[in-house]
Design goal:
By secondary structure, the chain is an alpha/beta fold. It contains five helices and seven strands. The protein has a seven-stranded mixed beta sheet, with helices on both faces.
Length: 174
């Protein structure tokens, strides 16, 4: 699905975020920025240990914050690490929403035009997929009118049902 929100094209995609050919992909991070399992583990496995090392040199950060690193061996040039939760803790809507806004601001400051987001805070973070989708897409919606260089947002789900959750919410917002 593809929709226009303000100055942005927002689309959904089913697949592995580590395969995305965009300027930056987002890592669903903890506030200490070490990369364990889930999305973070897949990104580190595909992109290289240097992504985690570079991120950790910038941390720890507060939940709700974000930092940018190179993309290592990934197709994306950069990884933006969105801290939706503390290490070993649970993600919450406000931290995910804030981290997405921080990621979009960082992307614009770096002149990036395309960025892909996973379901931050869902899975190991304990946030429901629907709450994660709402936090991400409402942050995108509030950013859309003043998006700077950012022109394309891709929300990536690993499963068909996760993409459907994003699609349904996107329909309601547009």
């Amino acid at each position: 699905m593809e929709r226009r929100i303000g100055n942005l094209t927002v689309r959904t995609h089913q697949g592995d975020i580590a395969d995305m050919k965009v300027d930056a992909i987002v890592n669903a991070a903890n506030s200490h920025l070490w990369m364990g399992s889930g999305v973070a583990g897949a990104i580190k496995s595909r992109g290289g240990q240097e992504i985690e090392e570079e991120a950790m040199r910038q941390g720890p950060i507060q939940p709700g914050g974000a930092v940018i690193t190179t993309g290592g061996r990934l197709p994306a040039s950069y990884v933006i690490h969105c801290a939706g939760m503390p290490p070993g803790g649970r993600a919450d809507y406000d931290a995910v929403h804030s981290s997405v806004r921080a990621a979009l601001r960082i992307a614009s400051e770096h002149g990036l035009s395309s960025i892909a987001f996973p379901a931050i805070g869902a899975g190991v973070g304990g946030l429901s997929l629907s709450d994660s989708a709402r936090a991400i897409l409402t942050a995108v919606q509030s950013f859309a009118e003043h998006s700077g260089s950012v022109r394309e947002i891709v929300v990536v789900g690993l499963t068909e049902s996760s993409v459907e959750t994003f699609d349904n919410l996107l329909d309601k917002l547009t």
